[in-house]
Amino acid sequence: MSGPVFLPPRHYLNDGYGVASWLLTRDHKRIALLYLIGVTFFFFVGGAFATLIRLELATPAGDLVSDDTYNKLFTMHGVMMVFFFLIPVIPAVLGNFLLPLMIGAKDLAFPKLNLASWYIYIVGALFTMYAVITGGLDTGWTFYTPFSTVASTSAVIPAALGIFVNGFSSILTGLNFIVTTHRMRAPGLTWFRLPLFVWSLYATSLIMVLGTPVLAITISLVAAERLFNFGIFDPARGGDPVLFQHLFWFYSHPAVYIMVLPGMGVVSELVAAGCRKQVFGYHFVAFASLGIAVLGFLVWGHHMFVAGQSVYAALIFSILSFLVAIPSAVKVFNWTATMYKGSISWDTPMLYAIGFIGLFTIGGLTGLFLAAVGLDVHVTDTYFIIAHFHYIMVGGTIMAYLGGLHFWWPKISGRIYNELLAKVSAFIIFIGFNLTFFPQFILGYLGMPRRYHAYPPEFQVLNVLSSAGASILGVGYIIPMIYLAWSLRYGRIVGSNPWGAIGLEWTTTSPPPTENFAHPPIVTWDAYDYPTQVEGRIA
Amino acid sequence: MAPRVDALYFFLLGVSGFFSLLIAGLIVYYAVRFRRRAPDAIGARIAGGMVLEIGWTVIPLLITLVIFFWGASVFFAMARPPDDTLNVYVVGKQWMWKFQHLNGQREINELHVPLGRAVKLIMTSEDVIHDVFVPGFRVKADVIPGRFTQLWFQPTKPGRYHLFCAEYCGTRHSGMVGEVVVMEPDDFQRWLSSGSTSGSLASAGAKLFADLACNTCHRPDTQTRGPLLDGIYGRTVTLQGGSTAIADEAYLREAILNPGARLRAGFQPIMPAYQGVVTEDGVAQMIEYIKSLQPPEGLR
Q1: Which residues pair with residue B278 across a beta bridge?
Q2: Do A449 and B164 touch (CB under 8 A)?
Q3: Is there a smaller number of Cβ atoms within 10 Å at the N or the C end of chain B?
């Protein structure tokens, strides 16, 4: 450390005060913080539902809440976490904040549209919260027909409307990112000099723009059948219930990649900076993102292996599902290889990155169990599935998000959090996560079905382990909330590049000025070009 | 089926364990071996390596192909029941399972089957989608309103096995559970003939066939306006427009409930749809009646 470090005199956080300066802002960095508040709130709402689920499942009897309440809890947990947390979290918070900074632009291509996206997200969330408050939703987040259209008596329409509206937020964000990446890159910043996070955001945006309209159509058809008695999915009126599953998963499988691709991008950044080394096989990692985005559209049928589809359709979806695993495997191998002969930091962001690689590997490998049709028949719709997708969504996406938040927090706030607490809570999350979800793989193979309010007593031991893990995990998520908030005012001021990392975002002040760069940058180097480009810290 | 599924499972556990430990081991080893020793230290300059990239693309691809073919072969066995199965009709409704044996014996939430015999369940739902899942046999299939799906298994050990509904179906989904009771064949025969049944499914179907006056049109003489049903089961029939279909349970079901959907060639679409007129139980009875009709001499 060479002398005291001060915040810059002028930055985006002190450029205007008061509620209007935030709610009417067009600054991508402030909009990112608006999203941060939104997703954090819905994360804790969804987390509260999860807590009640795990409490109920601590005993085999359905004794804590009624069966209807339990069904609403897991439905609302899924809806909140998927649509209002996991899908927006990395693109809309970290992506929004970083995309212009990483490409040397002063903002996104359409700043007003960006603000509109946030308002649309909030309106969608309000409709869905209205559904929660006025009786809840009991269809499962998957809205399977004909249950959702003829049998459920819960608030299907407000919830569906919320998800429909929220979809436009995704579409507009995706559109904004695609145009920004094409049109706003700094002079000299060619496609193959882009940080890998930008590649992953670009691939994600393609899915958002191409996939989300299908969800809007599907949800509209459910509403039409429910409200106007159209016979679309209900066989009693000439409809086909399985058609819904095709439409739903045509969006919702790619949506998995909306959730995890940005996380992979974040991890590429964390690994590069944590090793002070370029990412091994940059081109392969970049194209793996696009490969996943394209192949991800062709595997929806693997959600329906037991839904009466033809044997041959199942085989085709099976082999395509194995193919989509390959680019993910390539990424894991490349991150691991990046660590070879790196200068590996043990700071919090790198701990999260390492945690991500481990958990994502397990999540990905258990995906192979599910892609193997003959084995999927046994484990689908059991806790094996629950464990698998939580390893991807929670072990993957949330680990990456928290790693990214800790990595860029000094850029966002200009200050650093308590590093000891941060490392401790990263460990708590890792331990709590594995204790929560690993037993669920075993439960699933033993045959415990998902969405069960009560279960046979022989499953209790593993369920108690899982519930105990969930309480540890909950603590692990609350601690960072507290020390990050605390650091906003009391954290140590760290200057523009505390990690000694490469990347345009580290060349401007922390926090950056509203226009991002005092002088528009010109790029003459490749991404992660370590020996030549670190300013200050490295000779 | 269970040993085949388990073998694949343990193979996959081995593959996953190997790769998980490989990755975790390398990461931990590198994190310690190459930890940052000075605040300003940077990593070595290594851009990538084509041989490694090709290696870790092709090797996983080959491994996944092995898993694919293995999984596919298990699935084929699951999808193809043997010819001489013991058939049971299953109707799911919120929130119970109804089983009908061919001799007319009915049961709810309990399914008795004989040891060693291949059993085929012919299943449909009266309301929303359900799913029959017997973890002990490693089999599962959705039960979908408006169509037949099927599932088969061959029990190899007597005992009681969990039967779960595995597709979320509303309030008492987790109460929609039952048991498969596997009995010695003799005990099963005794159980099957116990109690009072109202006759076999086929005889009940014959009565229904007469009550609904189906024989007004489906008759063997020159007055016939509908296809002759004797011996139709299992035959390939030609449809309007030239395509063909096998007259299996699913086809016969559709031909009763919604005859216009796949009309036989050479007949007028005059038959009314019996959707909503005949219950799912009635459909099963009529199908068994039609299956019991012997083909006429010339066609045998």
Answers
A1: B275
A2: yes
A3: C
Q: What's the mean pLDDT when you consider all of chain B?
A: 91
DSSP string, A175-239: HHHHHHHHH-PPTT--GGGS-HHHHHHHHHHHHHHHHHHHHHHHHHHHHHHHHH---SS-GGGT-
* Chains A & B: contacts with CB separation below 8 Å: 284
**Does the beta-carbon distance from A283 to B48 stay under 8 Å?**
yes
Tell me if A113 is assigned to some domain: yes
Q: What is the arithmetic mean of pLDDT over B122-150?
A: 95
Q: What is the pLDDT of residues B243-267, one digit of tens each?
A: 999 998 999 999 999 888 888 888 8
Q: Which two tokens stand for residue A470?
A: 């969930």
Whether residue B26 and residue A336 make contact (CB cut-off 8 A), yes or no, is: yes
Cβ within 8 Å, pair A447-B133: yes
Domain holding B278, by residue range, is 201-299
What's the pLDDT band for A539 if we cut at 50, 70, 90?
A: very low
Identify whether residues B184 and B205 lie together within a single domain: no
The dihedral sign for the CA sequence A385, A387, A392, A393: positive
- Whether B167 and B249 map to the same domain: the answer is no
**Nearest-10 Cα torsion for A69, A63, A478, A25:** 10
Region for residue B242 given its phi and psi (left: phi exceeds 0; alpha: psi -120 to 50; beta: otherwise)? left
Domain assignment present for B164? yes
State how far residue A30 is from chain B, nearest Cα, in angstroms.
32
Q: Which domain holds residue A300?
A: 32-533
One domain for residues B291 and B225: yes
Mean pLDDT of A474-501: 95
pLDDT in tens, A235-265: 988 899 999 999 999 999 999 999 999 999 9
- Determine the distance in angstroms separating the CA of A329 from the nearest CA of chain B, rounded to an integer: 8
Q: What is the pLDDT of residue A3?
A: 62
**The total number of structural domains that make up chain A:** 1
Q: Which of B160, B193, B226 is the last residue of a domain?
A: B193
Q: Which of B64, B162, B173 sits opposite A325 (nearest CB)?
A: B64
Closest residue in B to A69 (Cα) is B171
A353: closest chain B residue by CA? B27
- Range in A510-514, A535-539, B232-236 with the lowest mean pLDDT: A535-539
The CATH number given to whatever domain includes residue A403 is 1.20.210.10
* pTM reported for the whole predicted model: 0.94
Which residues in chain A have their CB less than 8 angstroms from residue B44's CB?
Answer: 277, 341-342
Nearest-CB residue to A452 (from B5, B23, B174)? B174
Does a structural domain hold residue A11? no
Residue B273 has a pLDDT of 87
Q: Mark yes or no for CB contact B165/A282 under 8 Å.
A: no
**Residues B151, B100 share a domain:** yes
Q: How far apart are CA B197 and CA B125, in angstroms?
A: 23
Q: Report the pLDDT value the prediction gives residue B139, as an integer from 0 to 100.
A: 96
Asked if A236 lies within 8 A of B53 by C-beta distance, the reply is no
- The proportion of chain A whose per-residue pLDDT surpasses 70, expressed as a percent, equals 98
In sequence order, the 6+-apart residues with CB closer than 8 A to the CB of B3 are none
- Please tell me the distance in Å from A467's CA to the nearest CA on chain B: 19
**pLDDT tens by residue, A119-134:** 999 999 999 999 999 9
pLDDT tier for residue B298 given thresholds of 50, 70 and 90: low
- B270 and B253 co-located in one domain: yes
Q: Where a domain ends, among B177, B193, B209?
A: B193
Strand partners, B178: B163
B125 to chain A: closest CA residue: A235
Q: What pLDDT, on a 0 to 100 scale, did the predictor assign at position A118?
A: 97
| Chain B nearest CA to A483, separation (Å) | 25
CB contact under 8 A, B167 and A381: yes
Whether residue B93 is found in the same domain as residue B189: yes
Judge whether A45 lies within some domain: yes
ipTM of the complex: 0.91
Q: Cα dihedral sign for A77, A83, A84, A86?
A: positive
* Residues of chain B contacting A236 with CB distance shorter than 8 Å: 145-146, 275-276
- Residue B58 forms part of a structural domain: yes
User: How do residues A260-281 score in pLDDT, each as one tens digit?
Assistant: 999 999 999 999 999 999 999 9
| B215 and B147 both lie in a single domain | no
Which residue on chain A is closest to B49 by alpha carbon?
A: A281
Contact A68 B171 (CB under 8 A): yes
CA atoms within 13 A on the CB side of B246: 4
Angle at A504 between CA A502 and CA A505, to 5 degrees: 95
